[in-house]
């Protein structure tokens, strides 16, 4: 062994160094080869003096570096840089960029930002709940009570199927307000409808299985099926909802259909009873499944909410999916799935492999909110609020009807699709506008001449709604004249 | 059209029927064919009398059934069961069972219950945090403050990368306590390490790519990689941790290695510095990746926590994964991932497709808990608590050393693996015991003569620990004599 040489200690950047600073400087000096194999360190007394730190701290740092294998300490001889450390070369940023790529799959999935909500709600990207109307004082009070009732259970592991109080409250709600007969055992709690969709896709589908999705479709569902490696097959939506016969001719052997029957996303159409039965008949004959996503079935401003497919199904082949993000508030992170009892344990196992379980506190708070009748009052209130907003919007847009624009007459939901037969004109409107406008074609797979503006208004106040509608009307008028002019010339 | 006949109304079960009861009875009568195509309903006045409900309610119900297509109403003629309803036959339970199967993939994934935690912590299944020691009054106080500071943002959409306050607090914590240099921009918040693992697998791996996992291994990681359709390749763990050379000979072209270097799960071994460099060298040469899961790196009862692989890496190819479930409490549902900046947006997009975003309130509360120094005090306190528990357990088990049992000397973590060279004996102990004992072989892929008992003690109080250890010692003694006797005979 060559004669060990004494070394200078690496400089510290901090004026009053802490343990981490000293440790980091010494370790990095070894990693970068500034201190190398066999170098002898000064004594901890000397090093402590040099660095202006306590001897105890210096002892700790040398001890840790020895524990980790950077240093070797030998009684009587001193502390040395250990033999086995070979300094690594830092890669340049360019080298890293060249090699540091996500997988092909990762790149494809990562390119899809469709599930990210806009960070600042404004006209017309605001499809989330209007939280200004939420009774948040009541909610905090109930949350404190939930915390007391849960006690230590608020901090511990919770049933991955969901808290029984909430499952029972949801089963009662579904029976009372949606005409669905089920037991609490069939209700599974998820963080979001998106998470439930992924778990269902894993449960029901093999890789490469076909799934009917509506065209146009909720992009989150398409993403979840793709993530689970299934093949979404777009089935056209007309005035009666999903065109079952078209689905049969495109993919009769699909294993699953994903539908939004109360208020189709994004067109707003309600699926007719005839189509509902066609769908159930197909499901029965082909032993396939239906996911009924009733994402805003609570909000219907004329008549009562429509009867869910689930309630019409006699074969136990419909999975009913509901969310509390729309009816309560989006950061609640609670959704529920109604599932035949034989699938409860299987899907719970799948869910735990994706993301453990849902925390108990929001579940308990929500259960209290429902049990005490606040949920039904809140739904009534919000139905009135959103119904009025929808009316304000539709009234504001009225002049556009004369320019050939149309919209769904299904009086429901927190978004409105405004259609025009000339797609170029619609796209010109969007391009010229400073509003945040989404095009129907974004949600559509099949090409079509027509296009539409997808107006999400749930979280907007009346003033922004009116101003947004007025702006849109003005712009459409201007562009319409311009377009007509061009056509004439 | 045949002459419509008047019908009797279906009976109601409820003594004081509500809207839902009346609606449900009528709808079901149509669905079951009790009322059939062309049947004429009585007037709403008559029906209201028969059912003892208000006329307004009856109007609503008839209106809804007409809206939904069950009834047709014609002014002057009355209300009829609509033409298009063909009653569905109910399937029998047996028929359903025959056809209602999950997919092959679904069955395989659903059969894995390894990610479900035991519902009642007892000796020795209790690897979660000891929530009795958690300062929950302080936590509620901070949560109320977090709610005030967030205001309406507590209810709205939150950044899917995580709340910036928490990301900053975690970056500071990692710098100060784990010697990791990073910016808050590199920190991404997930609900759980499991969720982060799945997102990483999707980002980094193509279907069928190989991943090194430790053998024995944390089962949740294996499940996440399988769920993402990658192929886990078990690499043996010895006294220095993962055997990198064995990994090279088994799957040199693996894209990723998943390791738990501070305190291997479940063996408790710490990866030696030499092996750490071997691993980084392989990663550099093969352009592969490492996930460093530092799941309980905070709890080390002698010396300081070991320097993470992340801090040794010069190639930006190590992803550092930490969780707050172990150090805080399991229902907090917060974990964090440290990732090169170029991957922040891609993995965030992937995460939103799996499950939207993490709610803001627990994030803000956690950020306050960290910023005010409570986190470091809590870690210090819990290190003392768990260290004492570990000592109690090891002391209690001491007599087993004479029977040939051994355990890791790495003084860390909230579980202890107790090994014996005779696997049959270990399994006999487990079988005979009323304690909740997990076998090492459950976590192991390769066969081995030896086996071990995996004792998870974090959430146990001292009395249960002592009682459990005493019971185990007694049982091992009894069975050892019996086994020796059998061997002699």
Describe the SSE topology.
The structure is a homodimer of 489-residue chains.
Chain A: H1 19-31, E1 40-41, H2 44-51, H3 55-67, E2 71-74, E3 78-81, H4 93-99, H5 104-110, H6 136-150, H7 164-178, E4 187-190, H8 193-204, E5 210-215, H9 219-227, E6 231-238, E7 241-242, H10 244-251, E8 256-259, H11 273-286, E9 289-293, H12 309-312, E10 318-323, E11 335-338, H13 344-355, H14 360-371, H15 374-397, E12 406-407, E13 415-420, H16 423-432, E14 438-439, E15 451-456, H17 462-488
Parallel strand pairs in A: 5-6, 5-8, 8-9, 9-10
Antiparallel strand pairs in A: 1-3, 2-3, 4-11, 6-7, 10-11, 12-13, 13-15, 14-15
Q: Order of strands across the widest beta sheet of chain A?
A: 4-11-10-9-8-5-6-7
Principal-axis shape of chain A equals elongated
Question: Could you tell me the radius of gyration of chain A in angstroms?
Answer: 31 Å
| Number of discrete helical segments of chain A | 17
Mean pLDDT of chain A: 88
Q: What proportion of the residues of chain A form beta strands (DSSP E)?
A: 5-15%
> What's the oligomerization state?
homodimer
Helix content of chain A: 40-55%
Sheet with the most strands, sense and barrel status of chain A:
8 strands, mixed
Structural class of chain A: alpha/beta
- Give the number of DSSP strands of chain A: 15
Summarize the largest interface: chains and residue counts: A-B, 127 and 127 residues
**Low-pLDDT regions of chain A:** none
Give the N-to-C terminal Cα separation of chain A.
Answer: 94 Å
Verbal overview:
Two copies of one chain form a homodimer. Chain A is of the alpha/beta class and about 500 residues long. Chain A has 17 helices and 15 strands. The first copy, chain A, has helices at about 20-30, 45-50, 55-65, 95-100, 105-110, 135-150, 165-180, 195-205, 220-225, 245-250, 275-285, 310, 345-355, 360-370, 375-395, 425-430, 460-489; strands at about 40, 70-75, 80, 185-190, 210-215, 230-240, 240, 255-260, 290-295, 320-325, 335-340, 405, 415-420, 440, 450-455. In chain A, helix 8 (about 195-205) packs across helix 13 and helix 15 packs parallel to helix 17. The termini of chain A are far apart. Chains A and B meet through helix 1, helix 3, helix 4, helix 5 and helix 6 of A and helix 1, helix 3, helix 4, helix 5 and helix 6 of B.
């Amino acid at each position: 062994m060559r004669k060990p040489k004494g070394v200078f200690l690496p400089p510290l950047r901090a004026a009053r160094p802490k343990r981490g600073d000293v440790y980091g400087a010494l370790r990095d000096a070894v990693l970068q080869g500034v201190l190398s194999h066999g170098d002898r360190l000064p004594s901890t007394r000397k090093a402590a003096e040099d660095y202006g730190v306590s001897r105890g701290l210096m002892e700790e740092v040398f001890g840790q570096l020895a524990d980790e294998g950077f240093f070797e300490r030998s009684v009587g001889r001193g502390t040395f840089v250990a033999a086995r450390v070979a300094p690594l070369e830092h890669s340049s940023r360019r080298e890293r960029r060249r090699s540091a790529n996500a997988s092909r799959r990762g790149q494809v999935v990562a390119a899809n930002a469709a599930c990210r909500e806009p960070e600042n709600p404004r006209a017309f990207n605001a499809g989330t709940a209007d939280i200004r109307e939420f009774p948040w004082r009541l909610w905090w009070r109930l949350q404190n009570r939930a915390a007391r009732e849960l006690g230590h259970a608020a901090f511990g592991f919770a049933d991955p199927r969901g808290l029984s109080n909430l499952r029972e409250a949801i089963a009662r709600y579904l029976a009372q307000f949606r005409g669905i007969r089920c037991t609490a055992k069939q209700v599974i709690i998820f963080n979001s409808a998106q998470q439930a969709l992924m778990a269902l896709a894993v449960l029901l589908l093999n890789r490469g299985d076909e799934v009917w999705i509506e065209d146009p479709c909720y992009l989150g569902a398409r993403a979840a099926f793709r993530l689970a490696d299934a093949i979404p097959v777009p089935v056209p939506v007309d005035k009666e909802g999903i065109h079952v016969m078209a689905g049969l001719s495109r993919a009769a052997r699909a294993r699953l259909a994903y539908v939004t029957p109360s208020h189709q996303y994004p067109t707003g159409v309600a699926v007719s009873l005839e189509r509902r039965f066609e769908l159930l008949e197909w499901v029965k004959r082909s032993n396939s499944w239906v996911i009924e996503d009733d994402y805003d079935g609570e909000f219907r401003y004329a008549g009562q909410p429509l009867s869910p497919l689930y309630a019409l199904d006699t074969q136990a082949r419909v999975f009913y999916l509901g969310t509390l993000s729309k009816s309560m508030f989006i950061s609640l992170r609670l959704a529920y799935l109604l599932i035949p009892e034989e699938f409860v344990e299987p899907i719970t196992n799948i869910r735990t492999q994706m993301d453990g379980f849902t925390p108990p506190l929001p579940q308990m708070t929500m259960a209290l909110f429902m049990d005490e009748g606040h949920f039904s009052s809140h739904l009534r209130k919000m139905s009135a609020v959103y119904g009025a907003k929808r009316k304000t919007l539709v009234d504001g847009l009225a002049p556009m009807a004369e320019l050939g624009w149309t919209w769904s007459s299904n009086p429901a939901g927190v978004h409105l699709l405004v259609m025009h037969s000339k797609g170029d004109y619609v796209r010109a409107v969007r391009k010229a506008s400073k509003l945040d406008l989404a095009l129907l074609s974004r949600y559509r797979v099949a090409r079509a001449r027509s296009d539409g503006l997808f107006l999400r208004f749930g979280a907007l106040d009346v003033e922004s709604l009116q101003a947004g509608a007025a702006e849109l009307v003005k712009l459409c008028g201007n562009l319409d004249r311009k377009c007509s002019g061009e056509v004439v010339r």
